[in-house]
Design brief:
By secondary structure, the chain is mainly alpha-helical. Helices cover 72% and strands 0% of the residues. Helix 1 packs antiparallel against helix 2 and helix 1 runs antiparallel to helix 5. It starts with 15 loop residues before the first helix and ends with a helix.
């Protein structure tokens, strides 16, 4: 990319928007993997826990954010802001999901939907803080 600078000593940071897009795409890959696992295990009577799907999806999706964080000097405020954004967005979206779908949604569905939708928000906050710190 034209806006990247390579000093030759580690990973190169791109644009924050690219980080969020790659996180969303990796989340979709993680959800597809969890769905295929569920479909393959269902005939044998094993249904994975929704928390397992969230864990697998998050581990796949946070890779680019971790690499982006390692590419520059550590900024603890960026991590704290990203974790707060993750927690607050998860709670708000879980409440909205449970309000919108009270009967079909099980007790874990709201928190799962809220968490999975909050991960890109948290990555966007992290990227914004890290990008702002690099500009200063």
């Amino acid at each position: 990319m034209a806006d990247e600078k390579d000093s030759g000593n580690g990973p190169v940071r791109g644009r924050p928007w690219d980080l969020v897009v790659s996180t969303v795409l990796l989340e979709l890959v993680g959800l597809a993997f969890s769905g295929i696992t569920t479909l393959l295990a269902w005939p044998f009577g094993w249904l994975p826990d929704p928390g397992l799907a969230a864990f697998v999806t998050t581990m796949l999706a946070f890779g680019p954010a971790v690499e982006w964080y390692r590419a520059g000097p550590p900024r603890r405020l960026a991590v704290v802001a990203a974790l707060l954004a993750l927690a607050m967005t998860t709670v708000v979206l879980a409440a909205a999901t449970n309000w919108a779908l009270p009967s079909p949604a099980g007790p874990d569905a709201g928190i799962l939907v809220g968490y999975l939708l909050a991960v890109p928000v948290a990555v966007a906050v992290l990227a914004w803080f890290l990008d702002r710190a690099n500009d200063a």
